[in-house]
Write a structure and sequence with these properties.
Layout: H1 13-16, H2 31-42, E1 53-59, H3 63-71, H4 75-81, E2 86-93, H5 106-123, E3 127-131, H6 136-143, E4 149-158, H7 168-175
Antiparallel strand pairs: 1-2, 2-4, 3-4
Helix pairs in contact: 2-5
């Protein structure tokens, strides 16, 4: 299923076609493709080139670790994410290596790595759904995440599936039109709330 954005201004098709489905095919993602997704994440920009990210990954052909990953998701997300062939957890390191000071950009940088992974996935016919609905404390315990690292998002990766496979409430959301704020609501110049002059109101 495709669900391109109705953009007000031209953007690359990779961005226009990126969205977050919940219906996934059970088709496995080949290991060489997974390597390329995380290679894309590897080359994201980061403060001081710190690269403060790590990804815990579980594929459906590894039932034990896949079950562990499902166990840290909230029930709502686990209900549909169990059909995705790959689940992951993005984790951020909270302090800089070079001086031990808090890295206030760690979440931002890990998000950038995840975004590059997502666009690489999209370029290969895969889709990514990132989730805030997970139990961070349980993830630390189940995966033995060390102190100083914070799980910040769960991720489902896979090929698109049939929306008809979803329960009705999720199917309705899957098929609903995509919406976004207008640029005039968040692109500002000079002072807060003053729309930038290059943005039409």
């Amino acid at each position: 299923m495709e669900k391109p954005a109705t953009t007000e201004f031209p953007v690359h098709d990779l961005i226009r076609n990126r969205w977050s489905p919940r219906a996934f095919s059970d088709k496995p993602v080949p290991p060489d493709v997974l390597r390329s997704l995380f290679e894309a994440a590897r080359w994201a920009a980061s403060s001081y080139n710190e690269q403060p990210w790590a990804f815990l990954v579980a594929t459906k052909d590894d039932p034990e670790n896949f079950a562990k990953m499902l166990s840290v998701l909230v029930e709502f997300n686990a209900g549909w994410a169990k059909h995705a062939p790959v689940l992951a957890l993005a984790v951020a390191e909270l302090a800089f290596h070079h001086n031990g000071n808090p890295n206030r950009n760690a979440f931002y940088d890990t998000g950038a790595a995840s975004a590059q992974l997502t666009l690489e996935a999209n370029s290969r016919g895969l889709f990514v759904h990132q989730m805030a609905g997970y139990d961070g404390d349980k993830a630390r315990q189940v995966f033995e995440i060390p102190a100083g690292w914070e799980p910040i998002a769960a991720i489902a990766i896979g090929y698109p599936g049939d929306p008809e496979s979803l329960p009705q409430a999720l199917r309705d959301r899957e098929l609903a039109p995509r919406t976004r704020k207008r640029l005039s609501e968040f692109v500002m110049t000079g002072r807060w709330g003053h729309t930038s002059p290059f943005v039409p109101k």
